[in-house]
UniProtKB/TrEMBL annotation:
Pfam families: SBP_bac_11. Gene3D superfamilies: Periplasmic binding protein-like II. The gene is modA. One of its GO terms (biological process) is molybdate ion transport. It comes from Nocardioides turkmenicus. This is Molybdate ABC transporter substrate-binding protein. Keywords: Metal-binding, Molybdenum, Signal. Molybdate binds at residues 41, 69, 169, 187. It comes from the Bacteria. The lineage of its organism: Bacteria, Bacillati, Actinomycetota, Actinomycetes, Propionibacteriales. SUPFAM superfamilies: Periplasmic binding protein-like II.
Length: 251
């Protein structure tokens, strides 16, 4: 039996579209996703490194989640699907125990005072944060920047009475930039990343407390090989330059 030409063409087009659709679905299914949990102070640098990683790994999507290191640890312990974790201190990395396969130190950071632009409260040093009437915001004690602040108070004998304690350096900066605080204690790198939205005030005691940042692929990661490759990127010359340019020190 001879098929009508129009019907034959219609069938051919339908088959072609069906095959194309199958190919498209297969392509989407082949995309790999790498999930990286990192301290809030790493937001700018790890966003850049994620873009670099995607460029060098076609078909890989890097999903980043930033926050206070202690909050991220709690999420990982609760089963959040993270492949890599970068902490702002060794204490929170240590909490993960065997879940962190091989932690490697990759950067360091120190504290700096952030004030609203122009420093209206005329903060000149760490001791000024204890002055009556000065509204200061710090990180909560369980967060690395909060732990560093508490250690700094002990070393200097300065007792700060903050108006609020936040769960990440990002939250501290938000309080400062919104005008809710005269000053906030964050990292040197956070002040640099904030640009003109804050004024940074360095203080001479800052180098007495140094936070070391470790990174590790996580046990049970969905993308074990990719996780290690991302860790290797952070530790590489390329990764170290990105971190150095942002103001991070050597580990």
């Amino acid at each position: 039996m001879i098929k009508h030409p129009v019907i034959a063409v219609g069938i051919a087009v339908a088959v072609t579209l069906a095959l194309a659709g199958c190919g498209s679905a297969s392509g989407q299914g082949d995309e790999q996703e790498l999930t990286v949990f990192a301290a809030a102070s790493l937001t700018d640098t790890f966003t850049r490194l994620a873009e670099e990683f995607e460029k060098d790994h076609p078909g890989v999507k890097v999903t980043t989640s930033f926050g206070g290191s202690s909050d991220l640890v709690a999420q990982i312990e609760d089963g959040a699907p993270a492949d890599v974790f970068a902490s702002a201190d060794t204490k929170n990395m240590d909490k993960l125990g065997d879940l962190a396969t091989d932690p490697q130190d990759f950067a360091s950071n120190t504290l700096e005072i952030a004030t609203p632009p122009g420093n209206p409260a005329k903060i000149t040093g760490f001791q000024d944060l204890a002055e009556d009437g000065t509204k200061v915001v710090v990180c909560a004690a369980e967060v690395p920047c909060g732990s560093a602040t508490a250690e700094m108070e002990t070393k200097t004998g300065v007792d700060i009475e903050p108006v609020s304690e936040e769960q990440s350096v990002s939250d501290v900066l938000a309080k400062v930039t919104s005008g809710d605080a005269d000053a906030g204690l964050v990292y040197v790198t956070d002040v640099a990343a904030a640009g003109d939205t804050v004024t940074g005030v360095e203080f001479e005691e800052a180098d007495q407390v140094v936070n070391t940042y470790p990174i590790s692929a996580l046990e049970g990661a969905d993308e074990t090989d990719l996780a290690q490759e991302f860790v290797d990127l952070v530790l590489s010359e390329t990764g170290q330059k990105v971190l150095s340019d942002a103001g991070f020190g050597q580990p």
